[in-house]
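User: Please predict structures.

Assistant: First:
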Amino acid sequence: MKEIILGCVTAFFVVLLATPSLITVAKLKKLVDEPNEDRKKQKDSIPTIGGIIIFAASIFAYSMWFPWDDLSYYGSPYLFAEAVKEFKLLMAAAILIFFIGVKDDIIGVDPLKKLVGHGIVGFILVIMADIRITDMQGIFGIGELPYMVSIALSIFSYIVVVNAFNLIDGSDGLAAGTGVITSFFFGLWFYFTKQYDDSLLAFVLAGSLLAFLVFNFMPAKIYMGDSGSLFIGATTFALTVKCIETDANLTPAMLKQLSPAVFALAVLAYPLVDTLRVFTIRIFNGVSPFSADRNHLHHMLIDSGQTHRYTALVLYGVSICIPLFIVLTKEMNATVAFLFMLFVAVGLTHAVWFFRKRKKKAAQMVPLAE
């Protein structure tokens, strides 16, 4: 559909053309991230409100090119009404999560109030819009889920996905680039399964983030802040669930043997595995899983002496490779495919960790050799 291309291009150019002005305004108003000696290693003051333009461009392009007048695509007035209802609720959730992020970027948000805000967004998406996981598709022998279990699992998934993108936003270009990759994979999935409105949303987000990378890749001139990472996380959650819930009748022959659930998890494997790994480390260390540290993969690479550019490119590679390995699961049942995907995801992410350990060990041996 031409609307998908036009939506992506529109979002791209809105971000590309508007971001320089946003950077200027942010510096004038002192909406910047100041360097320090603890966790923020940049040398200059950098604006932290890039999420404003990501949000604005995505909403603008999605609203402009949404297939409002293509009733033949939906097949019936009822399905069209359902699509419009979902569109409105997605917009409501996006606006709320965006303003939570903006307030957090500018003056901070009390953790309890932030949790309440996430609860409302989760309620809108999962219960009102009915964007929820209803079936495990045979993974570990589990099929259709009871309604309350479906609600609980979906809200938990929302919290995990949103926090995953929020937590990997710690290196120049990393969260934006990962968002481009995940959105691109989901956009292709929805296009080939003829879910064009969802494909439009995915490619609009990809276009916005690709243009933002022009200013966010090393050396970063602007950061997306929570207003960006939370919006990306919430949108990605919706795309993930809708991918998992793809109607088998819409799946073309080339995708027929792939499990939508395994594919969706593979697309998100890097941020999910990294987040769960860090949470586990923090819990074992007796601290809150939400406390700040430098145990993320990107922190480990940077602390081992690698640049932000190298770190981002390595982790982009991990994000791309894991979904591509899913092609090998076409002949496997859902449980084996899931375990294979998990093995590949953990293996690739920990290969990065192993590289850091080797580098540190090699550095320690140099003085002995001299």
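Second:
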Amino acid sequence: MFETAITEAVFRLRREGTHWLSTGWNGGHWNSPVAYNISVPEDWGRTDLGAYVADRRQRAGFERDGPALLTGVDLDHLRGARYGPVEAYATVGLSNPAALPIDPTDGGTEQPDHDRPDAGTVNLLVGTVRALETAPLANMLAVAVEAKATVLSVETGFPGTTTDAIVVGCDPDGEPAEYTGSLQEVGAATRACVRDALLASLRSRYPDDGFPATVEDARHGVATTFTSEVFRIG
């Protein structure tokens, strides 16, 4: 499986030969043995992210570059889950929830300006020892996002935060898996691992359900209350 290490508030997930797909700031496709989740200090506001991440890696003794996520959550609240060929690692911070009302009340069509600092985030690193082509790897990411949104919606009322990010990885030399949907081995395991790691991190970070009940209760956050133009084709 994957090797894990935490040093100097940097979490490293490692497996030689891994191919990653990331939605993080340095995202996209990566061929690297490592991926990271890095805890940043409160009121952190750096913008030179490449230099910052490289410095944090080197201070932690992690020389290899790879996709990296940043979070305001202390890594004491990092939790992992494993099932079959998949494992997932999660940190959950809800200081900046992103609500999606199904029946918006203001009826507006313009997006408001929400240029505010965000300290929370929900970060996921998910890896499988199966070999996946480009499409099933992308679908694995979609399955992880779906599971994340479902768990958070049920537990908190929010599908996520304004800064959520996910990294998924596979072993190109592993046993091939053609599909990663919910009915298949990798997809089903991804759903279970994301659910269980998220719930464990959420309950560690907010043991008394101390997360914001509404966007207004949060330090930062957004609710998408404007409406789009809906039209029929043909």
